[in-house]
Amino acid sequence: MKKTLIAMTLMAMTTMTAMAQRPSREDMQQRRTEMAGKQAERLAKDFELKDDAKTQFIATYKAYRAELQAAQPERQRMENRDGQEVKTKKMTDEEAQKKVDEYFARQEQQISNQQKRLEVEKKFYAEFKKMLTPQQLAKVFTAQRQRQGGGPQRHGGFSGHGGGRPGGFGGPGGQGGDDF
């Protein structure tokens, strides 16, 4: 009886520990919102904005970051259920064709997401342009790119950094490579 109780307690503690290590989607969203607020505060300080200009900038920046986040779904990798990359040598022709089709569908989705992101950036560029100098605008938009690892080119671009191996369908540095 004691052994069973100890085993159940250990199992419950292990489960709670594992769950505690993974932040919930709401927690992640809260952290992103807090980080956007802190970044807005830092930029406003760097730009030496005062009173109403500072308040307006911070509100606009937070809205900008929220819309960018909404336009960018969670990233996905082509993995099997064990979390291991898919190996083509173990696939049938039908499975391989399905993986290629999924690859192209993901690429189309990434392009669609990048277009949405570009639309959000253009929208907020017009808003920020009303309150910031051109140099400040450059800092807002380049700071955003630097935090995210290079902007749109990180998914299949030719920059050579950001998540892919050279070669494959994505071109040098793009997604693809050995995923098939």
Write up what this structure looks like.
By secondary structure, the chain is mainly alpha-helical. The longest helix is centred in the middle third of the chain and has 37 residues. The chain is flat and about 70 Å long. The C terminus is likely disordered.
Main sheet, how many strands, which sense, barrel? none
Structural class: mainly alpha
Total count of helical runs of at least 4 residues: 5
Overall radius of gyration: 22 Å
Instruction: Give the overall shape, derived from the CA principal axes.
Output: flat
What's the assembly state of these chains? single chain
Distance between the amino and carboxyl termini: 51 Å
* Mean pLDDT reading: 74
